[in-house]
Amino acid sequence: MAVNKMEKMTIIASAEREEVILQTIQGLQAIEIKDFFHSNVDSSYIKKHFASTVVEEDESKKKYFQSMLTEIQEALTFIERFGENSSKKKPLKRQIRTLSSLEKSFDELRITEYLREIASLKKGLDTIDSTRKELLSREKWLARWQYLDIIPQTNSLASTELLLGTINSANQSDFLADIEKVASVYVEEIYHSQNHVYYSLIYLKSQSDDLEEITSKYSFNEFRYPYDILPKEAYQKNKEELTVLVEEEKRLKISLSSYRNHLEELYFAEEMTYAYIHREGAKKHLLNTSYFFVMQGWIPIDEKQELTASLQKALPIDEVYITFDQPTEDEIKTDIPVKLKNNSLVAPFEMLTEMYSLPKYDEVDPTPIMTPFYMVFFGMMVADIGYGVLMLLGALLALKLLVLPRGMKRFADFFLILSFPTIIWGFIYGSFFGATLPKMMFGIQLPFPILSTTEDVNTILILSVIFGFIQLLTGLMVNGIELTKRKRYLDSISESFAWQGLLVGILISVLGMLIFNNDGLVTIGIVVAVISAISIIVVPIIQSKSKIKGLAKGLYGLYGLTGYIGDLVSYTRLMALGISGGSIAAAFNMLVAFMPPVARFTVGILLIVALHALNLFLSLLSAYVHGARLQYVEFFGKFYTGGGRAFKPLKTEEKYMNIEKKSKVKE
Q1: What is the pLDDT of residues 633-659, one digit of tens each?
Q2: What domain range is 173 assigned to?
Q3: Per the structure, how many domains does the chain have?
Q4: How many other CB atoms sit within 10 Å of the CB of residue 235?
Q5: pTM, to two decimals
Q6: For the purposes of burial, counting CB atoms within 10 Å of the CB of 494, is it exposed (0-12), middle (13-18) or buried (19 or more)?
Q7: How far is CA 497 from CA 141, 478, 565, 567, in A?
Q8: Where are the membrane-spanning stretches (predicted)?
Q9: Per the domain annotation, does 604 fall within a domain?
Q10: Phi and psi torsions of 274, nearest 5°
Q11: How do residues 192-223 score in pLDDT, each as one tens digit?
C-alpha cells in the first residue's frame, strides 16, 4: 500500500515488428513510453553507426486517423440528429473488451464506405436545406404578387411603362394623392400587408420624371419580376417544387435512418481510431531506423511478467530484446512517474490524494493513512441511517447493473465504502431520515441515540476535537518516521517528535486539572511539554552556524503552537455539519407533518422525497468537501509535500468501453 515501484524498460526489435509491439503494450495499458531522445541514454553509438538509417518522424498516418476520427464524429452527430425513429434509439451499452478483440472487429474499408455514403447523404440534405430556404423566400414574395394578372416582360408598350414596387403603408394616402396629380397614371393595389402596400403602376413614358419625383419622395421600393409566366403560376410552381423537395428529404432521411443499425459499429470505430491516434503519437518517442527500433518506458514491477508473456504470445521470443533496469537517482528526482498501489478498500480514496497532489516517487503515500480518518469524518458529518442505506443501494445497483467508466466506478466504490460509516454514525445519533429511532421496540430497551444531537452537543464537540487531535498526532508521527528514514534525526525531533511531546504534555496537564484533579498528572504533563518546547528551540540552534539566528528560528517555530490550536478548532465542523444536517432533515419531516392528512399523503409524499433528496445532496457535498479540506490543510501539512508526476501509460480513450487485459476478459 504505497507508491508502485517502477523499472525502466527497453525494447529493441526489427522495424516491421513495431506495430505489433505497440499494440501489445497499448492493450496492457500499463507502460508509459519515454522519449528516447530526451532520456539519459547515451545514443552516440547509434548516431555514429546508424545515422544514415534513422527514419524521420512521419505524421501522415496520424493525420489520416485524425481526419477519419473527425469524419466518424460528424457522421454520428448527423445520424443522431437527422435520422428517423429517434424515439426507438437504444443507448449504447458500455462494454468490457480487450484491445485485440476491438481491433479485430474494426473493418477500415467498411467504415470508410459508410462514411462516404453518409457524407453523400449529408451533402444531399444540405443542398435540400439551402434550396428550401431559397424556395421559401421566393414563395413569400410570390404570395404577395400572385394577384398581378399580367406578365411584366410581355406587356411593355412603346409609349407606356409598368412599375412594380412597395411603399410604407403609413404613406399610402399621401402617395395616392400625389399620384392623382399626374395625369394618365393607372394605379392598382396588388397586396396590403401590415407595414407595406404593393402597387402596380402604368404610366406614359413622357411622365417618367414626374413619377420618379413622387416615388423618390415616398421611398418607393421598385420590384423587378424575374419570370415569364404569371405570378400565380410561378407561385403554384414554387409550391410544387417545395413538395418535391420535401419528398426527396424524406427519402434521404429514410436512407440515413438505415445507418442507425450501424451506430454501434461506428461508435467502436471511433474508439479504435482514438487508439490508433494514441499509438501513432507514441511513435515520436521511439528511435526508428530502417532496420530496427528502440523503445524505452516506465513499467510497474508487478506488470513485467504480464508484458513478457504478452510479447511471447504476439511474436517469436528471439525477435525481440527486452531488458529492465532500476531507475537512477537522477531519474527518481526528475523523470520517474508515480502510480499509487492500494488494496480495494483504500484505492477509491486515491482520487482525494490525486486532487491534492501525487506523492513523489520516494515519498510516503498518504492515502492509506488518510482513509480511516476520512471515513470517520464523512460518516460523522452525514450521520443518517436512511441516507447511508440510499448511498449503499445506489452504489451497489450502479456497480452491479452497469459497466461504468473507470472514474465513475471509483466514485461508486468511494460512496459504497462511505455508506457504512454513515449508517454507523446514524445509529450513534439515532437518526433515520431525520426521525429519531425508537427507544423501545418489542418490549426491548434500545440504546439509541448513543449521542443525542440536541442533548449531547458538548460531548460531540469534544469528540470532534479528540478525533482531530489523534489525526494531528498521526501526521506528526508519519513525518518523524519519514525524516528518520532519511537520517535527518535532529529534524525529526524538532519537526515531529518534540511537537508530539508538547501536544501530549498539554493534554495530560489539561486532563489532570479538569478531569482527574490529579496534581501528579499536571506535573508530568508540564514536564513533558517543557522538555518538548526546549527541544523545538534547541535543535535549530544546534543546526545553525549563527546561534542567534538559530534561537530566533526555534522561538518562531514554537510560535507555531497557535497554528495547532487553529487546526483543532477546524475539526469542530464535524459536530456542526452533523447536527445541522440532522436538524434540517427533522425540520423537513415536521413541515410535512403539519400538513392536513389528505395533503400529507399526496403532495406531502412528493415534497418529503424532494426535500430529503436536496438535504442528502447538500450533506454529501458538504461532507465530501469539508472532509477533504481537513485532510489537505490540517493533516497533509504535517508530513506531506507531494509534487509527483502522474503515470500516463499508452492506452486507449475508453470513451464507449473499458479496455482490459486479455487475462481479465473472456473473449
Answers
A1: 999 989 999 999 999 999 999 999 998
A2: 150-229
A3: 2
A4: 21
A5: 0.83
A6: buried
A7: 90, 10, 18, 18
A8: 373-399, 411-437, 457-476, 497-516, 522-542, 601-625
A9: yes
A10: -55, -45
A11: 888 889 988 888 888 888 888 888 888 889 88
